Amino acid sequence: MSKLKIAIVGCGYWGQNLIRNFADLADVEVFAVCDFNLNALARIKRRYPTVELRHDFQEILADPRIDAIVIATPVSTHYSFAKAALRSGKHVLVEKPLATSTQQVLDLMELADRKHLTLMVDHTFIYTGAVRQMKSIIDAGTIGKLLYLDSVRISLGLVQNDINVMWDLAPHDFSIMDYLCQEAPVAVSAVGTKHLGCAFENISYVTAHFSSSMIAHFHLNWLAPVKVRKTLIGGTKQMIVYDDMESTEKVRVYDKGITVSKDPQDRERLLTGYRNGDMTAPNLDTTEALRLMTREFVESITQNRLPLSDGFAGYRVVRLLEAAQQSMMSNGEPIELAHELDRQTALDSPVAVSA
């Protein structure tokens, strides 16, 4: 069986990670790498001497030997590059977020569906051993009904020059929430601010509201003196702390909680009980998330199936980003989300696609 020939467009920090992981797959050939930066291409050539180097994206599109295109370019280019790749008959993997609007995502989904091509977004964190383990714990009902998800993703940089901190960092947390929670948010509110003459917000606080008592909150910051990547998940039975900066025990499950009952002698008085049990740290699969993500892309093509982080997963994340941006521009006013579409309904919605 011939190897799947892949071209990677963009060989910056993330593009280099993608090249490395695709190159390590036995049934894949990194056939070409494209970038406008000739120095970046020279670095790739030293490490991967057999890879063809291109600085013109049109050459990638026109090459019939290329089966799939991986896009790791600035967010503002994702939609136009992905659409051009799909129109040229290539399978497509796009770095997060998939596009800058839900309309653009629906456009790409419809085009990929019509041409029977794979469209996938790189929601890296849902492929980590930590997040997959948390998914198993939650789905098994071990922690009970979800009460809250509280996430902090802060560091000093990397400040982007084309998007704000929310569009840069929140796709990670939104995709994790989307993967873990069986319930979809019904509204989003967000505030943010700009400092030091930056054109875009460098600090943001986002809240996702649910029809139940579940609530999710995200703290995003490019101006923090320390790097923090921590998520707390509270359930009615147990609680989870996910610290991505930990080298070993990234996931800790706490048998802790609170019970509240009425005082039989005084109906106005609440009786609160506190449970302090053991902490367990489950063993995690240490396979690099990008290795699993790149493998999922290849297998979704060869097996002719939808990938885990397909276009519709990208749609759900961009839908939250779009609403949060609208809320931020309205000084934190909650933005209600339209009824959650299923994938087929989304594809059946009227979108303008040029063949």
Strand content: 25-35%
What is the C-level CATH assignment of the largest domain? Alpha Beta
Low-confidence stretches: none
CATH superfamily of the largest domain: Dihydrodipicolinate Reductase, domain 2
- Morphology call: globular
Largest sheet: spatial strand order: 14-13-12-11-7-10-9-8-15
Measured on Cα atoms, how large is the radius of gyration? 22 Å
- Provide the helix percentage: 25-40%
Q: Mean pLDDT, nearest integer?
A: 93
Shape-level CATH architecture of the largest domain = 2-Layer Sandwich
Number of strands: 15
Structural class: alpha/beta
The CATH topology of the largest domain, please? Dihydrodipicolinate Reductase, domain 2
Distance between the termini: 31 Å
Q: What is the string of helix and strand elements?
A: EHEHEHEHEHEHEHEEEEEEEHHEH
Features:
Dihydrodipicolinate Reductase, domain 2, 6-stranded parallel beta sheet, alpha/beta, 2 domains, 10 helices, Rossmann fold, 355 residues, 9-stranded mixed beta sheet
